[in-house]
């Protein structure tokens, strides 16, 4: 009698289209099977003969260089043995030589690339494309990234486009951004980052460890990660941060060269980190905070120095208040913390401060920030200060040839305003400030603040610039618990507004309104200044100042105009590579009572729009034309115009050189689009020139079968 022919596998079908649909991974542009953990997927195994009861068959999933069973890096799944390390396998049906198997990975399996082979007796079959990608699973209740709302999962995991909010608290605008987590090579780039992070297998199970590692790897500091930060204004050796419109080009370039891509600023870091987290299956959103404090000394205080003309001085402070700062929130249960800190966690990949010796930040629970539990890991003190620090204004005066510092006022409400993210399922801004802090002035806010202060111990009220110690500080109150606006004897109040649209090439027309509200005659010295500044708070140019003494009676107000001619700022505007904001600062001093008050407002320039013309729907694989039209309605020529366009699933990032666009001229560019995926797709366009960096727009089209 011949011995039984030994059982051999002749082929494997990964049933890709069925599995990826069920796992919400059908978007990934990759040959391999991509599945989420804790959820069954099926594979069809073809054998050289029927499967019998005595046959030994095992599916083996190995992760890492040298997978071993006892290390938990090799899962050997046998149908008769229910469970292996939380992984399960079962025979769904046998049909002649075909055998349909169902595999469920553990809901806390390490995330990454698994090599699959099938062992039958002593034979081992290695399929081609046998690498299976395993991701986090927000659809699985047992996974710590589980999110129970389908609309939120669609937005925070599956949406590959969105907005990042920038500008200033006075004028917020949305910058469209393509996350593109499903594009070619993006998943592989994320897997490369996971390997590069050297996280242990155990840490790869935990989104808190993974998100912390990714916040370090998205910046190039310490570990030659994805993006090199640059705020110098000189970007000739790379791409200016303003010139990106999405993460795809950046991550593809990084994956190809394995070298840091030049250059990023905060919204670019946040855009890329958002792509990486969504790609790995962790729900994630970009979060913009306006007037974000960068408090280097963790004393919940940022000092701002003004000269007597009311102009802000750059050189004196290591701290800064950024007009906006963008980071990310990632969604997860924190199994490493006491109860009550699950949900959104702040992570930040912009290299500002080191955390445990490396430039990274988070994950920090939003609930810990709100409750003042700033000792909880990770980086609670830094995030708390970003949204809660006080701003202290000092005037620097020369007294007998020496600089002396006079404290003018403390602003307790300005920092951490209008915390914003894109709304779920809608193209609008959602304000999430109340997820980060209690309402200003509420009982809960005071309690949370006292709690935070008990861990942070702020220093006294000395000015603390590098060489400020020569001047005598005018006040040493060590109780920074000022929650209300400083109430003055005169009810002094300042408002700053623009009275005309702020178009480049036109005069900048602003007004400082000074109000008093208590009976009496008041003589008020008002100093006001206008400067151009970067979003990081760094002053780029002084444009002009005014000084007036006004008289107000009782409850009254007076408006003081501040007008800057185009010649005063156009040269600066054309020479910088970044978008700059208009900063107006005012100081008012009441002679009779010595009340002092400062106020500053940042405004952005306003630009004519780009319009996009294309059909509302198009058919899969059928070309259509998309036109971009821009009319220069400004009084200045826009030099060296470049139009950047990208449409995920439609066409790759493309740049049109448009040369100079004279006032009144119309620019028109067309691109032929070939849709390769169905559903709603977005086209993003951005126009940059010497004078203007920030005109962008987007438009959606529905692609049907």
From TrEMBL:
Pfam families: Transglut_C (PF00927), Transglut_core (PF01841), Transglut_N (PF00868). This is Protein-glutamine gamma-glutamyltransferase 4. It comes from Atrichornis clamosus. Keywords: Acyltransferase, Calcium, Metal-binding, Transferase. Its cofactor is Ca(2+). It comes from the Eukaryota. Its EC number is 2.3.2.13. Binds 1 Ca(2+) ion per subunit. PROSITE patterns: TRANSGLUTAMINASES. One of its GO terms (molecular function) is metal ion binding. Belongs to the transglutaminase superfamily. Transglutaminase family. PANTHER family: PROTEIN-GLUTAMINE GAMMA-GLUTAMYLTRANSFERASE, PROTEIN-GLUTAMINE GAMMA-GLUTAMYLTRANSFERASE 4. Residues 258-351 form the Transglutaminase-like domain. The active site is at 266, 325, 348. InterPro entries: Ig-like_fold, Ig_E-set, Papain-like_cys_pep_sf, Transglutaminase, Transglutaminase-like, Transglutaminase-like_sf, Transglutaminase_animal, Transglutaminase_AS. It catalyses: L-glutaminyl-[protein] + L-lysyl-[protein] = [protein]-L-lysyl-N(6)-5-L-glutamyl-[protein] + NH4(+). It is an enzyme of class 2 (transferase). Ca(2+) binds at residues 388, 390, 440, 445. Homodimer.
């Amino acid at each position: 009698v011949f011995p039984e022919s030994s059982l051999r596998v002749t082929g494997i079908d990964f049933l890709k289209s069925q599995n990826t649909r069920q796992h919400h991974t059908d978007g990934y542009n990759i040959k391999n099977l991509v599945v989420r953990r804790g959820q069954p997927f099926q594979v069809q195994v073809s054998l050289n003969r029927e499967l019998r009861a005595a046959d030994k068959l095992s599916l083996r999933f190995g992760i890492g260089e040298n997978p071993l069973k006892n290390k938990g890096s090799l899962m050997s799944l046998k149908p008769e043995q229910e469970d292996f390390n939380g992984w399960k396998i079962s025979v769904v049906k046998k049909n002649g030589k075909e055998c349909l198997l169902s595999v469920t990975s553990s809901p806390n399996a390490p995330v990454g690339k698994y090599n699959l082979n099938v062992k039958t007796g002593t034979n081992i079959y290695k399929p081609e494309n046998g690498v299976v990608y395993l991701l986090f699973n927000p659809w699985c209740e047992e996974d710590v990234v589980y999110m129970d709302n389908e609309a939120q999962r669609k937005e925070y995991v599956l949406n590959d486009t969105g907005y990042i909010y920038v500008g200033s608290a006075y004028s917020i605008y949305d910058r469209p951004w393509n996350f593109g987590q499903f594009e070619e090579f993006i998943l592989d780039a994320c897997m490369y980052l996971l390997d590069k992070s050297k996280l242990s297998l155990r840490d790869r199970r935990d989104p808190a460890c993974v998100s912390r590692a990714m916040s370090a790897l998205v910046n190039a500091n310490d570990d030659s990660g994805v993006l090199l930060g640059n705020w110098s204004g000189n970007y000739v050796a790379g791409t200016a941060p303003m010139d990106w419109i999405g993460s795809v080009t950046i991550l593809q370039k990084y994956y190809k060269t394995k070298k840091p891509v030049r250059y990023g600023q905060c919204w670019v870091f946040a855009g890329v980190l958002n792509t990486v987290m969504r790609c790995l299956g962790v729900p994630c959103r970009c979060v913009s905070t306006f007037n974000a404090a960068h408090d280097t000394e963790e004393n919940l205080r940022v000092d701002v120095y003004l000269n007597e003309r009311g102009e802000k001085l750059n050189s004196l402070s290591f701290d800064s208040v950024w007009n906006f700062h963008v980071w990310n929130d990632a969604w997860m249960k924190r199994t490493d913390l006491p109860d009550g800190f699950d949900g959104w966690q702040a992570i930040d990949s912009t290299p500002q401060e080191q955390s445990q010796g490396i430039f990274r930040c988070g994950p920090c629970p939003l609930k810990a920030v709100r409750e003042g539990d700033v000792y909880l890991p990770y980086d609670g003190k830094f995030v708390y200060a970003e949204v809660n620090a006080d701003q202290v204004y000092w005037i620097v005066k020369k007294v007998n040839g020496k600089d002396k510092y006079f404290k003018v006022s403390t602003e307790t409400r300005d920092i951490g305003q209008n915390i914003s993210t894109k709304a779920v399922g809608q193209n609008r801004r959602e304000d999430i400030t109340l997820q980060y802090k209690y309402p200003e002035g509420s009982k809960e806010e005071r309690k949370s603040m006292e709690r935070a202060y008990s861990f942070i111990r702020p220093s006294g009220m000395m000015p603390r610039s590098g060489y400020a110690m020569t001047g005598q500080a005018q006040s040493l109150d060590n109780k920074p618990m000022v929650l209300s606006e400083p109430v003055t004897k005169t009810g002094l109040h300042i408002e700053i507004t623009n009275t005309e649209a702020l178009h480049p090439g036109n005069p900048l027309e602003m007004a400082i309104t000074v109000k008093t509200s208590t009976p009496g005659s008041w003589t008020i010295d008002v100093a006001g200044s206008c400067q151009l500044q970067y979003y990081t708070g760094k002053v780029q140019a002084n444009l002009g100042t005014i000084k007036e003494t006004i008289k107000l009676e009782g409850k009254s107000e007076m408006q003081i105009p501040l007008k800057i001619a185009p010649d005063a700022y156009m040269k600066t505007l054309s020479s910088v590579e970044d978008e700059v904001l208009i900063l107006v600062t005012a100081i008012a001093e009441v002679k009779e009572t010595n009340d002092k008050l400062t106020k500053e407002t940042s405004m952005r320039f306003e630009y004519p729009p780009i319009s996009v013309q294309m059909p509302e729907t198009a058919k899969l694989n059928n070309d259509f034309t998309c036109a971009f039209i821009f009319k220069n309605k400004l009084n200045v020529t826009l030099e060296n115009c470049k139009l950047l366009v990208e449409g995920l699933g439609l066409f790759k990032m493309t740049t049109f050189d448009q040369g100079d666009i004279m006032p009144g001229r119309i620019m028109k560019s067309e691109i032929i689009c070939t849709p390769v995926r169905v559903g709603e797709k977005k086209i993003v366009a951005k126009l940059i020139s010497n004078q203007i960096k920030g005109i962008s727009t987007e438009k959606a089209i529905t692609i049907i079968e």
